[in-house]
UniProtKB/TrEMBL annotation:
GO molecular function: proton channel activity
Family: Belongs to the otopetrin family.
Membrane topology: Multi-pass membrane protein
Keyword annotations from UniProtKB, A to Z: Cell membrane, Hydrogen ion transport, Ion channel, Ion transport, Membrane, Transmembrane, Transmembrane helix, Transport
Membrane-spanning residues: 56-82, 88-108, 128-151, 163-181, 193-213, 267-288, 309-333, 353-371, 391-413, 425-444, 508-527, 539-559
Region Disordered: start-end pairs: 1-25
Location relative to the cell: Cell membrane
Segments of skewed composition (Basic residues): 7-17
A GO CC annotation given for this chain: plasma membrane
Lineage top rank: taxon: Eukaryota
Name the record gives this protein: OTOP3 protein
InterPro entries on file: Otopetrin (IPR004878)
Length: 574
């Protein structure tokens, strides 16, 4: 106590001496001693606690909705008498109506409040993501139109719910696509908890729509393959095949052109609906993370590189060759595989294309990773929810293909790995695992690098720095010329040393972009050799293998599409 009094007296004496000698300096005022500052600090701490509580509550809401919907869908699969597809559709329609109400309220109410959107995340909702939402949303709308037309033709054996559900789905897709296109970058500053709950409810609804689409796709593929097997075994026995069709499907499509168009269009466009749901979930999750976020000037990127097709030659040429060859093989595969008896040679050709392409992609990714290590660009350590989500999605979506490959490896090694087709599928599975890992490392490493400035920008900054330095020092003209010459030689040396690295990164990135595009197109538009070759199916059983493939295949397609976006970011920042 006596020590505190002495220190207080000394501080007071010091304050009096300062007040008598010099005027107070307002620039050195310690604001932390004021009550207002301490009160604001406690408010900031309580604000962070409220933010965590709101995220926890909205996450629990989404978890319960997902579990409830998953229970409905699982009950429909295992006990389709008690819980029918119509019951699942009714539940999902209720969820979609609730999401529509919240989205309309956000568009007309929340986002128009004063100081509602003070900040916008420049990394969130890039143009390729929003373009994917519009593209897949358009195909999903067309899919639902085909479903309505198909159900209307078979109205005598279809329920009215099968027409109402796609109609609500069309309205939901249009509203959600408009919402994500215009507000995916918002960092909302009002009604935090209500906005978080609305976003999480929309994410849960999209996840359930994806789960239903996967299970329905499984059922359709199973019926189609079973009918094809029966047609092969009992060729010419039309009566037996017709009776089996009547057993597996409650009503068949009449022999009319319009019904066949609706049926084929529905099967062709079905994968786009699964991709649309996954893309929407990723964008909505970033919006959920940005609720209440305040972006300082340190988070605003000073460099905004644009996409320019300059200085790249070999990457586009090799990638275009891979795309053209892939399209030719895909068309030949579709012609052969859609026939009554798929030829064994078409599978050999399909897997041989992958065995040639995947090592090239892996080598390119490994070289790009080595160049990243040699380039010594600074790491971008700023908090970025979009980049964090990109990394999670790349790692999570790759598990779909990697899991399928390991199941194939076990089945093929246990049966007959020396057979030509089996050895090709085995090599394909091993190479695909290695390619996914190397590509993920390359993309993630590139996303965490600071963008490189163009040579023109660097030259301007060096000239400005040199001009400022020389103007401050007032050196002689001879010394100035010598230093400029040294700086120019140093710049030419550094640029020639770095240019080949940047050029190589752009070549590799562009090549991988085109390769991932063709590897996305082939399974998306119907090339599913895992359904057709019958090797894994005979080992694991029909139902088990179809569950594995239909959960892994959409994730694999989503991985290729998301890799394209990540590789474009690496290309631009290089």
């Amino acid at each position: 106590m006596s020590g505190n009094k002495v220190s207080r007296q000394k501080s007071c004496h010091h304050c009096k001496s300062r007040s008598t000698s010099t005027p107070p300096d307002t620039s050195t005022i310690h604001y932390e001693n004021f009550w207002l500052y301490r009160h604001c600090s406690s408010v900031q701490q309580s604000d962070r606690q409220a933010q965590k509580a709101g995220q926890l509550f909205s996450g629990l809401l989404a978890m319960n909705v997902v579990f409830l919907g998953s229970a409905f869908i699982s009950s429909m699969i295992f006990n389709h008498v008690a819980i029918t597809l119509a019951d699942v559709w009714i539940l999902l329609s209720i969820l979609k109506v609730l999401c529509l109400c919240w989205i309309i309220y956000y568009l007309l109410g929340t986002s128009r409040q004063p100081h509602a959107v003070l900040h916008r995340d420049s990394h969130a909702g890039p143009i390729w993501i929003r373009g994917s939402v519009l593209l897949f949303g358009s195909f999903s709308i067309l899919l639902n139109v085909f479903q309505i037309g198909y159900s209307a033709i078979l109205i005598q054996c279809k329920s009215r719910v099968e027409i109402v559900f796609p109609s609500i789905e069309i309205l939901f897709i249009c509203t959600q696509a408009f919402f994500l296109w215009h507000h995916s970058k918002d960092c909302i500053q009002v009604q935090h908890n209500f906005t978080r709950c609305g976003l999480m409810l929309t994410i849960a609804t999209n996840l359930l729509l994806w789960l239903l689409a996967v299970t329905n796709d499984t059922i359709h593929m199973e019926i189609e393959s079973q009918l094809r097997e029966v047609e092969q075994r009992f060729a010419g026995k039309a009566l037996f095949f017709t009776s089996l069709c009547n057993e597996t499907a409650s009503c068949t499509c009449p022999n009319t052109t319009m019904c066949k168009i609706f049926q084929k269009g529905y099967i062709l466009l079905y994968p786009f609906n699964t991709e649309y749901c996954l893309v929407c979930c990723s964008v909505l999750y970033v919006m959920w993370k940005n609720v209440g976020r305040r972006i300082t000037h340190h988070h605003v990127p000073h460099i905004k590189p644009k996409f320019k097709l300059q200085g790249v030659v070999f990457g586009p040429l090799l990638g275009a060759a891979a795309v053209i060859i892939g399209i030719c093989i895909f068309m030949m595969y579709q012609i052969q595989a859609t026939g009554s008896a798929p030829n064994r040679q078409v599978f050999v050709m399909y897997y041989s294309y992958y065995i040639v392409l995947l090592p090239l992609m892996s080598v390119g990714a490994v070289i790009g990773t080595i160049i990243h290590a040699l380039e010594k660009r600074e790491l971008d350590t700023l908090k970025n929810p979009t980049r964090s989500l990109d990394v999670i999605l790349l790692m999570g979506a790759a598990l779909g293909q990697i899991g399928m490959c390991y199941f194939s490896i076990v089945a093929l090694v246990a049966t007959d790995p020396r057979d030509l087709l089996n050895s090709l599928i085995l090599s394909y599975s091993v190479l695909l695992i290695f390619q996914n890992i190397t590509q993920n490392v390359f993309i993630i490493d590139g996303l965490h690098r600071q963008p490189s400035m163009s040579p023109g920008k660097e030259e301007e900054m060096k000239e400005e720095q040199n001009h400022e330095a020389h103007s401050q020092r007032r050196v002689s003209m001879l010394e100035l010329g010598q230093e400029i010459r040294k700086a120019s030689l140093s710049y030419i040396h550094s640029y020639s040393h770095l240019s080949w690295k940047r050029k190589a990164l752009r070549e590799i990135s562009f090549f991988l972009v085109l390769c991932n595009i063709i590897l996305w197109v082939m399974p998306t538009f119907g090339a599913h050799p895992a359904f057709e070759n019958g090797l894994e199916k005979s080992f694991y059983g029909y139902s088990t293998w179809f569950v594995i493939v239909n959960f892994g295949l959409p994730l694999g397609v989503f991985y290729r599409m998301h890799s394209v976006g990540g590789l474009l970011e690496v290309y631009i920042t290089a």
